[in-house]
Amino acid sequence: SASASASASASAQSKTHISTPVTDKRQRDSDSRSPEEKAKELAEELRSGLGPLAQGWGRSSHEVGAEKFVDTFFKASRLHFIGTWKERYDTLLDVMDDTPPLIEINPRWIFHVDMDAFFASVTTRGVPELQRLPVVICWGSEKSNSGEISCANYVARKSGVKAGEWLSSAKEKCPTLISFPFEFEKYTETAMNMYKALFRLTPHVLGLSCDEAYLDVSQVVADAALANPFADVNHVVSEIAEKLRREIFQVTGGCTASIGCGSNQFLSRLATKQAKPDGYFHLEDSKVLDFIGKLNVSDLPSVGWSTTKILKEKGIQTCFELRKLSQKFLAQDLKLGPKTAKKIFEYCRGIDTRPWNPRPIRKSVSAQISWGVRMKTDSEVEDFLKHLSAKVVDRMLAMFKKTSGNKAKGTAAEEANVIRSFHGASLVSLKVWRAKKNANPNKRKGSLGHGQCDRLHRSLTRSFPTKDPEEVARNTIGLFKALKIEAEEVRGMGVILGNLHENKNSASSTSVRKLSTNQAKRRRTVLEPFRNTFNLSAALQASTLTKDIENLQTLSHKEMVDAIIDQLRKTKTEPEVLPFLGNKKACEAAAFCNGETCGSVHCFQKHMLDCTAQFLYEMCVSIDDDLVRIRCLIQAVKQIANCIWEKDSDLNKYWQSCCDQLKFQYREDVNVCSSSQISYSSSRNSDIIMNSSGIVGLGK
DNA sequence: TGCGTGTGGTAG
DNA sequence: ATCGCTACCACACGCA
Q: From the record, what ranges are coiled-coil (predicted)?
C-alpha cells in the first residue's frame, strides 16, 4: 500500500488546483534560506493575518466585556470548531439528495476513512519541504511556548510529540519543532471536499467528524465483484479503497487519508490504526480474535481513562485478559453497569451491534466557556449569560432552518412555515464551574484556565417551549441565582437547551424533531381531563369576533401562541425572575434565595403567566380544527389581556371566568393529575397544583 | 416500577 | 497569557 500511495501522491501533485489553491508563500519561495526559516516565517505570516486573536489576546471576560469575549473565544477555540462541526456537515447533507435507507447485505464491508494528522496536513499540503519538517498546530508561537498542541504531523510524532501536550514540553523533545496556527476555514472547506468524494462512491456515508467517516460499501463491493467474477474479493476491495484514497488526495489538495476495512464499524475503526499513516488495511474476520487480543483495553471505544483505571486495578491490561471476565462480573463487581459491560464484552470479541444511523436527530444544543471567565459582579454574570444564551439560541434556530429547509424544498413561504412550526426548547439548563476553595494554581492551564473546579448543573423544565434568547437568559440567570454562587468564584458557564419541540400539527413537522415517547404520553395524560370537559360548540357560539377570526386564520399555531404570550407580558410590570416552574428543587432554592420576593405579587403573576401560556399552548396543539382553535384562543386572550392581578381574589375570579368562558369545569378539589404532582404554595392562600408539564388545576 | 434530576464518562 | 467544546449515553438517587 505504501507504493500505491506514493504513486497517488505523484499523480495528484499537479492537480492541487482542483481544491483550494495555495495562494500564500508556501509555494513561491526560491531563495536560499533553509526550509526551517521559511516555515517559521510562513507561520508568523499566518499568525499576523489573524489580528488580535493570535497575537497575545489572552485577556479575561472581565477585561474585555462579555459580548466581545464570547465572540472572540468561539472564533479561536479549536474544541468549539470540533464540537460544532456537525452543524456545518448538516449544510452539506441538506443540499444533497436524500440518502436511500441502507439495506444490510452479506457479506458486509465497512470502510473507516480517517485523514492523517488532518490540521497539520492541511497547513503543509502540496509543499514537500514543509511536510518534511516536524510541524504542530496550536496557538502558541515562537515567542511564547505555551499552548496546547492540537495536532502533530508524523515527523513530529517520531520525536515523541503528541496532541494534548504543551508546546514547551514538545520543544524539549524536538527543538526544531515548528508551530502553525489554526486555519479553521480551510479545515471546513477541505473536509467538505473530502465528504463530496465519499458521497461519489456511495450514499451510505456516516460522518463522525471533520476528518473521519464510516462508509458502508457492501453494495459497491457486490457490484464490483459481479462485474469481475474471477477476481479475488479482497483485491477488489483494496482497489476500491486505494482509488478512494487517491481521489481524496486530489480533492483535498494533497492531504492523505487512511482507510480501515472490516465487517462492522468497530472492526473497520481498529483496522485504521494499522493502516495509518497513508495506507489501507483490511482486518479479516478470521484474524479478528488474535488481532484484538493483543490490543490494550483502552483501544476499545467506550473504554476511556476511567474504565482503563478500573480494569488496571484488577490487573486487566489487554483485551485477551478482558475476555476471561464474564459480563456479569464487569457489570456488577467492577461496577461498570450493564450497558457498558455488554459493550466492552462484545467489542473485545469483535462484535458491534450499533445500528447504522447516518443522521441522528439532535436532542440538545449547548454553548459553554470555561476559559478566561472572570467575574467581579452579578451584573457581569448576567451579561455573560445573556450573550451565551443569544449564542445558543442562534445556533438552535440555524440548525432548524437548515434541517427543515431541505424538507420544505426551497420556497420562501414553505421555509417560513417550517421555522414557525419549531417551538424551541422547553428544557433550559445552566452549568457552572466554581473554583475550589484551595485550588492549586499549578493545576491550571495558563493563567486563564479554570483550574480545579466543582461543576454544578441546574435545569429548569419550562411549562412551554421557547426560542427567545432573552427568555433563555432570564431562566439561566434565575438558575444562577438559585445556585448562590459568588461572581468571583465563577470560572466557566454553559447554557444547554433540550426538549426541542416541533408542532405536531404542522404539515412540515414530519420527522425532524418529535416529542419523546414519555413527553407525548405525559401530554396525553395531562390533556385528557380537559378534553372531556371542553365544550367546543358552546365556545363557538360564545365567540362574536368573526372579523378578527378571519384575519387570524392565516396565522400558524405558534404565531397565535406568541401573540398571546405577548399580550400576557404586556399586562404586567417587570416580573421577578425565578426558576420555580416545574422544578421543586429550583423552586425551593429560589425561595430560600429570596424568600420575600418569591411570594410577591409580581412573582406570582409570572407564575400565572407561564401557567396560562402553557394552558393555551396545550389547547393550541390539542384542537385540530383551525376555526375552533382560533375562536377559543380569542376568548382566552380577551379575558387574559383585560386582567390585572392585584389580589388573590382577582386571580381566582380570573380563572373562574376564564374557565366559564371556555366551558371548562372549574373544580375546587383539584385532584386532577398525576404521578409527579407538585404543589406550589405562595404566602397567600392560593395553591397551584401542577406537574412539570404545567398547570393541572387550581385550589383555594 | 416509572419518572425527573444531577453527575460522570466518552469521543472527536 | 495562548482560546479547557459539544453531544450523547448511562447511572444513582429521590420521589410517588
A: none
What's the predicted TM-score (pTM) here? 0.75
pLDDT value, residue A504: 37
Nucleotides of chain B in contact with protein CB (under 7 A) are: 2-12
In chain A, domain spans: 2-21+35-283, 287-347, 361-514, 516-700
Q: What is the rounded average pLDDT of the residues A65-88? A: 95
* Cα separations in angstroms, A396 against A362, A400, A454, A565, A610: 10, 6, 28, 21, 22
Instruction: Kindly report the length of chain A.
Output: 700
| CATH code given to domain A361-514 | 3.30.1490.100
* Residue of higher predicted confidence among A161 and A594: A161
pLDDT band of A400, cuts 50, 70, 90: confident
The predicted model gives A342-348 an average pLDDT of 96
CATH class of A2-21+35-283: alpha beta
From the CA of A615 to the C1' of C7: give the distance in Å. 32
- Report which residue is nearest nucleotide B6 when distances run from CA to C1': A457
CA-closest candidate to residue A156, choices A147, A169, A141: A169
d(CA A614, CA A309): 48
Residue appearing with cell numbers 465572540: A71
Helix residue ranges, H only, A210-279: 218-227, 233-251, 265-275
A212 is catalytic: yes
CB A77 within 8 A of CB A148: no
User: Look-up: residue for cell 497539520?
Assistant: A120
The predicted pLDDT at position A186 comes to: 97
- The three-state DSSP-derived secondary structure of A507-568 is HHHCCCCCCCHHHHHHHHHHHHHHHHHCCHHHHHHHCCCHHHHHHHCCCCHHHHHHHHHHHH
Cβ atoms of A317 and A308 within 8 Å: the answer is no
Lowest average pLDDT, out of A248-257, A273-282, A652-661, goes to: A652-661
List CB contacts of A222: < 8 A, sequence separation 6 or more.
A105
**CA–CA dist A675, A673 (Å, integer):** 7
Asked if residue A539 lies in contact with residue A628, where contact means CB atoms within 8 angstroms, the answer is yes
Q: Which of A425, A442, A434, A540 is nearest to A491 (CA)?
A: A434
* A337-CA/C9-C1' distance, Å: 12
Please identify which of the residues A148, A212, A242, A247 carries the catalytic annotation: A212
Q: Are A174 and A161 in contact (CB under 8 A)?
A: yes
CA A206/CA A102 separation, integer angstroms: 11
Distance CA A616, CA A514 (A): 20
Contacts of A484 (CB under 8 A, 6+ apart): A589, A593
Is the Cβ–Cβ distance between A688 and A611 less than 8 Å? yes
Does the pLDDT at position A679 exceed 60? no
At A467 the pLDDT is 86
Q: How far is CA A577 from the centre of its chain?
A: 27
- Work out the burial of residue A99: count CB atoms within 10 Å of its CB; fewer than 13 is exposed, 13-18 middle, 19 or more buried: middle
> Which carries the bigger pLDDT value, residue A36 or residue A187?
A187
> Amino acid identity of A621?
V
Mean pLDDT of A648-676: 38
pLDDT digits (tens, 9 = 90+) for A82-141: 999 999 999 999 888 888 999 989 999 999 999 999 999 999 999 999 999 999 999 988
pLDDT exceeds 80 at position A536: no
- Between CA A410 and C1' C3 the distance (Å) reads 38
- Cα end-to-end distance, chain A, whole Å: 80
The two beta strands, A453-466 and A490-502, are unpaired
Is A90 buried (19+), middle (13-18) or exposed (0-12) by CB count in 10 A?
Answer: middle
**Nearest residue to B10 via alpha carbon and C1':** A302
